[in-house]
């Protein structure tokens, strides 16, 4: 393979990766969410959402109503949680305070929150409300996280495709 052809293929691959990154960042800005697309990793929201569903988030609405499905992060945990708002706390607390629960869970989420936390802060903890979904598309992500060797295989196949591609 000629060096010029190899350079062209490497640049094409870099262009694809940078385009995907720009689309992700554009979605993040439009949705006002650090993670505008998430995958359901457990069965806690069945029957509303199944494991592997791909969720689209929107975080531009200041009001969160009881019954709305939100995605939130807990301090010290890297995995976002998808659950339904079951109560809005008001009173003397500043800001919007929420209590959540998985549809398929017996108890509310207080045990999932950070130590000493009894509610979610809408501004600090919630990364978005679910506005749409595609069923089961996220299973690829689940498979890659549960079987790390698959990432290496997929990257190897992609690299081979770039190298062997002829224009």
Automatic annotation (TrEMBL):
Gene Ontology, cellular component aspect: signal peptidase complex
Membrane association type: Single-pass type II membrane protein
E.C. no = 3.4.21.89
Question: Out of the domains of life, which is the source?
Answer: Eukaryota
Gene Ontology biological process terms in this record: signal peptide processing
Catalysed reaction, written as an equation: Cleavage of hydrophobic, N-terminal signal or leader sequences from secreted and periplasmic proteins
The GO terms this record gives for MF are:
serine-type endopeptidase activity; signal peptidase activity
Q: Does the keyword Transmembrane helix apply?
A: yes
Q: What keywords tag this UniProt record?
A: Endoplasmic reticulum, Hydrolase, Membrane, Protease, Signal, Signal-anchor, Transmembrane, Transmembrane helix
| SUPFAM superfamilies per the UniProt record, alphabetical | LexA/Signal peptidase
Signal peptide range equals 1-30
Q: How does it assemble?
A: Component of the signal peptidase complex (SPC) composed of a catalytic subunit SEC11 and three accessory subunits SPC1, SPC2 and SPC3. The complex induces a local thinning of the ER membrane which is used to measure the length of the signal peptide (SP) h-region of protein substrates. This ensures the selectivity of the complex towards h-regions shorter than 18-20 amino acids. SPC associates with the translocon complex.
The record's family statement is: Belongs to the peptidase S26B family.
Per its record, how is this protein called by name?
A: Signal peptidase complex catalytic subunit SEC11
Q: Which organism is it from?
A: Ascobolus immersus RN42
């Amino acid at each position: 393979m000629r060096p010029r052809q190899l350079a062209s293929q490497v640049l094409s691959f870099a262009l694809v990766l940078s385009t995907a990154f720009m689309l992700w960042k554009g979605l993040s800005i439009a949705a006002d969410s650090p993670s505008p697309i998430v995958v359901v990793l457990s069965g806690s929201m069945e029957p509303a959402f199944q494991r592997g569903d791909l969720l689209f988030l929107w975080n531009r609405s200041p009001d969160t109503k009881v019954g709305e499905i939100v995605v939130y992060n807990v301090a010290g945990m890297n995995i976002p949680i998808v659950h339904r708002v079951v109560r809005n706390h008001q009173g003397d607390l500043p800001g919007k305070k929420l209590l959540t629960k998985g549809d398929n869970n017996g108890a509310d989420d207080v045990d999932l929150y950070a130590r000493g936390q009894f509610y979610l802060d809408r501004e600090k903890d919630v990364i978005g409300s679910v506005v749409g979904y595609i069923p089961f598309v996220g299973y690829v992500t689940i498979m890659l996280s549960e079987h790390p060797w698959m990432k290496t295989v997929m990257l190897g196949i992609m690299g081979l495709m770039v190298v062997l591609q002829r224009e």
